[in-house]
Write a structure and sequence with these properties.
Blueprint (H helix, E strand, L loop, with lengths): L1 E11 L2 E12 L3 E5 L6 H8 L7 E6 L2 E2 L8 E4 L11 H11 L4 H14 L15 H13 L5 E5 L7 H16 L3 E5 L3 H7 L2 E6 L2 E7 H8 L2 E7 L12 E7 L2 E6 L2 H11 L5 E7 L3 H9 L5
Parallel strand pairs: 3-8, 3-9, 6-7, 7-8
Antiparallel strand pairs: 1-2, 1-4, 4-5, 9-10, 11-13, 11-14, 12-13
Helix pairs in contact: 2-3
Length: 299
């Protein structure tokens, strides 16, 4: 089972929201889909879900076009709240599962299991509007997982959650992946993407500007960081040949360098500024790569 997006383009009149995007996510993979607001992520998700037809190109799941008939195989958590506020939590989850052809008895049992896992069984008979934003997000994630889809689209799944609940939901998503689900995951938190995803794609102004495994993307970036911790002032080292960026930190400095030869120079020179407590070569973060490629902070 695999998700294929092949040269997909979506136009609205003269405006091109998604421009010739190709994507392949194999069974059991979690793919990070990144882009600033307005980059075309949600439009791409809607084409994958079959809610929008591509102007050009194709989208397929398991070798077949995505239609109403394949909807039981797909789970979707939208960035916007998509729940009925006046409806009770249990009734709503069962209703949504039944829409995806899950038998009512099984749905009721699974609802109880998920509410227990997310530590909110006491909310079963409460209306959604009575819940906090964080607990509404839990219910919305349950709705996307409940019917046991084989393809899961998650758009900002940790929005509105505190760190404890983020870890709870991460665990559930990783367990779901281990069961063989294919997951496409979008988040503004780059650290979450690095931790959870196998591969990433970066979208900018509707175009795919970068795609591949996180390891290959970082290697292809061609730059590394050097973190130095010392009591001395290292600002003079910003002029060392090969240093591209310098950032003062609380206990030293962080340098972005073009090659490892520069790292050796920094090591030699930094030892002249007092006791060296820490020296490490670090790979670039996804956030650094995103800013370099897109030219703005991911927000």
């Amino acid at each position: 089972m695999a998700l294929y997006v092949e040269q997909a383009t979506k136009k609205f009149g003269d405006f091109t929201a998604v421009d010739n995007v190709s994507l392949r996510v194999e069974r059991g993979q979690m793919h990070g889909f990144l882009g600033a607001n307005g980059a075309g992520k949600t439009t791409t998700f809607r084409m994958i879900l079959g809610l929008l037809d591509p102007t050009h190109g194709e989208v397929s799941w398991n070798g077949k076009p995505i239609t109403y008939g394949t909807s039981p195989e797909i789970g979707y958590l939208p960035e916007e709240r998509g729940l009925y506020p006046k409806m009770k939590v249990e009734d709503q989850l069962i209703y949504l599962a039944e829409l995806r052809r899950m038998p009512r008895k099984e749905a009721k049992r699974e609802v109880a299991n998920w509410l227990e896992r997310f530590e909110v069984p006491h909310y079963a008979l409460k209306k959604v509007e009575e819940l906090s934003k964080g607990n509404q997000q839990k219910i919305q994630l349950i709705a996307s997982l409940l019917h046991k889809p084989s393809l899961l689209i998650l758009d900002e799944p940790f929005s509105g959650l505190d760190p404890v609940n983020v870890e709870m939901l991460k665990s559930a998503i990783l367990d779901f992946q281990k069961q063989g689900a294919t997951i496409v995951f979008s988040s503004h938190r780059m650290d979450h993407v690095e931790e959870l995803c196998d591969d990433i794609s970066i979208l900018d102004k509707g175009k795919m500007i970068l795609s591949g495994s996180i390891r290959d993307v970082k290697r292809s970036f061609g730059k590394q960081n050097v973190r130095i911790k010392t009591e001395g002032d290292l600002s003079a080292l910003m002029d060392v040949k090969g240093v591209e960026k310098y950032k003062k930190t609380r206990d030293g400095a962080l340098f972005q360098i073009a090659d490892e030869k520069t790292a050796q120079t920094l090591l030699t020179e930094s030892m002249k500024f007092g006791t060296l407590r820490h020296f490490a070569i670090e790979e670039p973060s996804l956030e650094e790569i995103f800013i370099a490629k897109v030219g703005k902070v991911y927000a």
